[in-house]
TrEMBL record:
Classification via PROSITE patterns: CULT, LON_N
All residue ranges annotated as the Lon N-terminal domain in the record: 76-301
Ranges of residues in domain CULT: 302-403
Acidic residues bias locations: 1-12
Residue segments, region Disordered: 1-39
The keyword Metal-binding belongs to this UniProt entry's keyword annotation: yes
Localization, UniProt: Nucleus
GO cellular component: nucleus
Pathway: Protein modification; protein ubiquitination
Stated name of the protein: Protein cereblon
Length: 403
C-alpha cells in the first residue's frame, strides 16, 4: 500500500469527492461489508442524480437547447479535461477554480446572456483535428456567494480547427471548431409495414422481395430502430447487463428511442475505456456507432472489470448499476472524474484507506473511503456506505483506472 495517511483531512485533492451538509455519519459507516445486488433495494434517485454538493442552484433557465449548423465554424471558450470524454446528452459539472477558463465562462454577466456554450477536449496532445463536445450550461451553483460552479450538458460534437491563447488576465484558451454532423439512421423502404407494427408480415415480405433490391435481413442492418431494439434485447437477455437494462425498464425517459440519442446514451452507460470512448466520439454515422456498440456488447457479455495498471480483476459487469444522469463529478480541487457505479467489488482485490467520512461527499447521506488496487496500489475509486439509505454500500470506480 501507499504511505498515504488514513486521516481524511490529508487525502489528496485528486481523490476527494465533493461537498455535503450531512456530517453526522462520519463514524456511522464502517468498511467491513461488501454488498451484493440481492442485498439491496432500489437506489435513491434523489441522492444519486443531483449535483447539490456544488452549492445553491441560482435558477437560470435555458428555454432552448444550443444548436449549431453542422459544418459551421464557431469560436468558443476551450476547456481541457484530461482523459474525460463527454458524449452528447451527458452532464458535466465544473467548479470555478478548476481552470482559468472556467473563471471566465462562469461570470454571471455572460451566463445570463447568450454565451452559454463552451468546447471540451480530453487532451492537448495533437489537438488540431481532435473531436470534442460542445457543452451547454444548464445550471449555476453558488457557494457562500464566493465560488461559482456550473453543470452543463453535451449537445453536439466538433472538430478542433484552431486554438487561440487569450490576452486577458485569465490566460484563457479559445478555439475555432467545426461542428460535426450526425448522419442519422434512415428508415428503409416499407418501414411503415415493420414487423413490430404489422400483423400481416407475409405481405410485407412479399412487397420487400418484389420492390426491394435486398432482403429484409439486409435492410435491417441499416435500420436504426431495428438496431436499437437489438441492443435493448441484448441488455434484457444478458445477465451481464441487467443493471443497464434496469434503467431502460424503470425509466423510459432515461433511455431514448431515437437511434442517434440512444447510441450516445448506451456509449455513456457501458464501461468503455477512454480510448474506446474517444473512438466512438469520432464516428459521424449513427448506424456505424450502433454496430460498434453491438459488437462491443457481444464481446463483453460476461466480462470482468480489471485494474488498468496490473489487470487484476476488481469487479464484474453483472454488478454495474447506473446513476442515469450523474456519471461525471467534480471535487473541491476542480478535478473532474467519470465513475462507474457497482453494487459490489472483489473484496480481496481492493483495499479501503482512511476513516469513512461524509465531508465533501458526492452522494448525500453516504460516507466515503478511498479505494486502491490490492495488487499494484493504484487508486481505483471510492467505497460509499450508509446505514439509512439503500443500497447500504456501493462503489465508484474511476473510468481512467479500469479496463
Amino acid at each position: 500500500m501507499s504511505d498515504r495517511s488514513p486521516d481524511d483531512d490529508e487525502l489528496s485533492d485528486a481523490y476527494v469527492s465533493a461537498r455535503s451538509d450531512d456530517s453526522s455519519m462520519a463514524d456511522d459507516d464502517g468498511a467491513s461489508s461488501i454488498a451484493s445486488m440481492s442485498q439491496t433495494s432500489e437506489v435513491d434517485d434523489a441522492v444519486l442524480h443531483d449535483h447539490a454538493y456544488l452549492g445553491d442552484d441560482v435558477g437560470i433557465e435555458r428555454p432552448h437547447s444550443a444548436y449549431y449548423e453542422p459544418g459551421s465554424v464557431v469560436d468558443l471558450p476551450l476547456v481541457v479535461l484530461p482523459d474525460i470524454v463527454m458524449f452528447p446528452g451527458e452532464t458535466l459539472p465544473l467548479r470555478m477554480l478548476s481552470s482559468a477558463t472556467i473563471q471566465l465562462i462562469t461570470l454571471r454577466t455572460r451566463l445570463r446572456q447568450e454565451f452559454d456554450t463552451f468546447a471540451v477536449i480530453s487532451t492537448l496532445q495533437d489537438p488540431i483535428g481532435q473531436v470534442g463536445t460542445i457543452i451547454q450550461i444548464e445550471r449555476i451553483y453558488e457557494q457562500n456567494d464566493v465560488h461559482l460552479s456550473i453543470v452543463g450538458r453535451g449537445c453536439q460534437r466538433f472538430e478542433l480547427c484552431r486554438i487561440a491563447h487569450g490576452s486577458d488576465d485569465y490566460a484563457t484558451l479559445a478555439a475555432s471548431v467545426r461542428v460535426r454532423p450526425d448522419f442519422h439512421a434512415l428508415r428503409p423502404p416499407f418501414a411503415q409495414y415493420d414487423l413490430y407494427r404489422a400483423h400481416r408480415w407475409h405481405i410485407v415480405r412479399r412487397k420487400r422481395f418484389a420492390f426491394g433490391y435486398w432482403r429484409p435481413s439486409e435492410y435491417n442492418l441499416f435500420d436504426g430502430h431495428v438496431l436499437v431494439r437489438k441492443a435493448t434485447a441484448m441488455l434484457a437477455t444478458s445477465v451481464a447487463w441487467r443493471g443497464v437494462n434496469a434503467v431502460v425498464v424503470d425509466d423510459a425517459a432515461a433511455a431514448p428511442t431515437d437511434p442517434t440519442q440512444f447510441s450516445y446514451w448506451l456509449a455513456a452507460h457501458v464501461h468503455l475505456s477512454v480510448d474506446e470512448r474517444r473512438a466512438l466520439l469520432q464516428v459521424d454515422c449513427t448506424v456505424r456507432r450502433l454496430h460498434e456498440l453491438l459488437t462491443w456488447l457481444q464481446d463483453h457479455t460476461s466480462s470482468g472489470i480489471a485494474c488498468r495498471t496490473c489487470q487484476t480483476l476488481l469487479g464484474k459487469s453483472t454488478d454495474i448499476f447506473n446513476t442515469q444522469r450523474a456519471g461525471t463529478f467534480v471535487n473541491p480541487g476542480g478535478h473532474v472524474h467519470q465513475i462507474l457505479t457497482l453494487y459490489s467489488v472483489e473484496s480481496d482485490q481492493v483495499v479501503c484507506v482512511g476513516r469513512p467520512t461524509t465531508r465533501d461527499t458526492w452522494f448525500r447521506g453516504y460516507s466515503w473511503q478511498c479505494m486502491y488496487c490490492g495488487t499494484c496500489d493504484e487508486f481505483v475509486g471510492w467505497r460509499y456506505a450508509s446505514k439509512r439509505l439503500t443500497p447500504h454500500v456501493f462503489y465508484g470506480l474511476v473510468r481512467t483506472a479500469i479496463r
